[in-house]
Design goal:
With 66 residues, this protein is mostly helical. It has one domain. Helix 1 packs across helix 5. The protein is globular, with a radius of gyration of 11 Å.
Length: 66
């Protein structure tokens, strides 16, 4: 498993917990709003951020894509 894969899983789990979602709901949000590509493309910068920042950033990203 690559560092990017581990980072994406960390983000998915962090988002799921912060938003009080189950795994399926969080996965659907990531798939429907292309969060996986966003995290992959932005890995070099995003992986240096903390959990709270990442959850807010992902939530903002999803809100702008709705």
């Amino acid at each position: 498993m690559s560092d990017i894969d581990k980072f994406i899983i960390f983000c998915l789990e962090s988002y799921k917990s912060a938003m009080n979602l189950n795994g399926q709901q969080a996965l659907e949000d990531f798939e429907n709003y292309d969060v996986f590509s966003y995290l992959n493309d932005g890995f070099n910068v995003l992986h240096t951020q903390g959990r709270k920042y990442l959850v807010v950033d992902i939530n903002d990203y999803i809100a702008h894509r709705r």
